[in-house]
Amino acid sequence: AAAPRATAPQADRNQDSDTPRVPLLDVRGLTKDFPLARTTGGSRTLRAVDNVSFTLNHGEALAIVGESGSGKSTTARLVLALEKPTAGSVHINGTNISTLRGAPLRALRRRVQTVYQNPFASLDPRFTVSRIIEEPLRAFRTDTATRADRRARVTELLDLVELPPHLATRHPAHLSGGQRQRVAIARALAPNPELLICDEPVSALDASVQSRILTLLSRLSTDLNLTCLFITHDLPAARDLCDHVLVMHTGHIVEAGPTDRVFEQPEHEYTRELLAAVP
Ligand code: ADP
Ligand code: MG
Which of 63, 75, 95, 189 could be joined to 242 by an S-S link, Cβ 3.0–4.6 Å? Predict the structure, then answer.
């Protein structure tokens, strides 16, 4: 009998098909060098991400944990095609994202949404909450085309992130940190993304607010069956939210596996150190 054909080249031809065997995200040998300051001499580089490979399937939540400077955010930026890899590739639904230009690249930007660490910096202070949440709906001309449609969607999204409807007319300056991060989450969910990347989504918030936002993300991830890449230096948060975890250290993945296994029986010395540091 003929050997089954590889799925990846087929999927390349039809990026929007829901072929279940193709992971939503397939990262292979991803490497990113940054030039070091010229004063250090010559053309030396810093390898921020070093030969990173992993897959993320539809409906799964994957954590990338590691201390500051380990390459987590750079990995996220490579997945978003905001940086060009030095080597390796990122495939989303079987399509190598480095091949995308124009409309397909814009479609990728709609399908992959991000929640960043600092909701004070990521929300435009000139706009109302309503306008901020609508922004991706305008930018991507999704099905919510009319003004009334967009308003209805904003109301729905505010409810989803547990914010009262009257906040729609406020500006970010008049919201608490936790409320701002809920607005950022609503904005990210507005265009129904296939993948949500959360890069340290609670690190800038007060401890009591952190746990409430994590509870929200956990509920959304279950209710909406979100596929989520959750970047954090907070191991308990990763444990609560994610099925699988990657441990990054100086640009490398030193350990990967199901969250419970990695946290209960860490195989790598660095993972043991990280866990020992958790209060
Ligand atoms: P993390 O998110 O895990 O804290 P980052 O991915 O932000 O780590 O950074 C990894 C390494 O790459 C760090 O040493 C950082 O200083 C460096 N780095 C990140 N972005 C740049 C850049 N644009 N130019 C130069 N160095 C960078
Ligand atoms: Mg970071």
Answer: 63
Nearest Cα residue to atom 27 of ligand 1: 34
**Do residues 167 and 148 touch, judged by C-beta distance below 8 A?**
no
- Residue 213 makes CB contacts below 8 A (sequence gap 6+) with 178, 181, 182, 185, 201, 202, 205
Q: pLDDT per residue over 44-54, tens digit each? A: 899 999 999 99
- The SS3 of residue 115 is strand
Extract the tokens encoding 240. 């609560």
Which atom number of ligand 1 is nearest to the Cα of residue 71?
6
Mutational test site, ligand 1, from 45, 74, 84, 116, max ligand atoms within 8 Å of CB:
74
Cα(7)–Cα(266) distance, integer angstroms: 33
Provide the residue type at 270 as one letter: Y
Nearest bound ligand to CA 36?
A: 1
Ligand 1 neighbourhood includes 34 CB (under 6 angstroms)? yes
Ligand 1 atom with least separation from CA of 251: 10
Percent of the chain with pLDDT over 70: 89
CA distances to 69, 239, 241, 277, 279 from 274, in Å = 14, 13, 18, 5, 10
Place of tokens 């409309």: 103
Residue 40, pLDDT above cutoff 80: no
SS3 107: helix
Does the predicted interface ipTM exceed a cut of 0.90?
A: yes
Total-model pTM:
0.89
Beta partners for 31? 87
Eight-class DSSP state of 204 = T
